[in-house]
Amino acid sequence: MDLRFFEIYRRTEYVYLLLEGAAFSVALTLAAALLGFTLALALSGVRFAQIRYLKTVATCYVEFIRNTPLIVQLFFVVFGLPMLLGYQWPFWAHALLALVFNFSAYFSEILRAGYGTVSDGQREAAAALGLGNVLIFFKIILPQAVAKMYPSLTSQFIFLFLTTGVISEIGVNDLTQAGKFIDSRTFRTFEVFFTLTALYILISLSFKVLLAALQHRLFAWQVAR
């Protein structure tokens, strides 16, 4: 088998494209995760609080996102929403919005499952001390839920990072798009996608190590158990 990896690495342009694509994919994933987690807090909080109409809306939203492919959501955000609402954003902004929607739905379900792990006794004890429902949620329930579901949240984060390659379908210059561009110039498909695979694995493992370190720093009381 005639492998020619040097055709990728010998041109500085291709190396820069891969590095820029990797940096963009990482930055987009982090931004989408942060915004998605914030939205997930609102969605899970509404459902946990049993607010009648808002709970129904939040449930429908979550089920819609969780039961449709990411690429369908992406195309809807890129081509459907601008037609319905009459606006136009850069493709990278549409990709970010689609990823935020996707992250928020999955994160909210994980958080909602975590709320159920907090015993009723703790809620009753906090109420007996005079804490209101909002304080009980943010001081008692949410920290424990996030700590207990942290492995699931990080696994979902890494999984969604690995699916971000679909944004290359709308021409966003992420890591996958960089690889497709190089492939179209060198015609070394195996070498290019082998390199992409190695980069995705490297980034995913780096995320895993960093997130594990963050868990020990933020939730040492939970990890020590």
What can you tell me about this protein's structure?
The chain is mostly helical. Helices cover 81% and strands 0% of the residues. The chain is built from ten helices and no strands. The protein has helices at 6-9, 12-48, 52-66, 70-85, 91-115, 120-128, 133-163, 175-186, 189-218, 220-223. The longest helix is centred in the first third of the chain and has 37 residues, at 12-48. It is globular. The termini are far apart. The model has no long low-confidence stretch (mean pLDDT 89).
How would you summarize this macromolecular structure in one to three sentences?
The chain is an all-alpha fold and 225 residues long. The protein has ten helices and no strands.
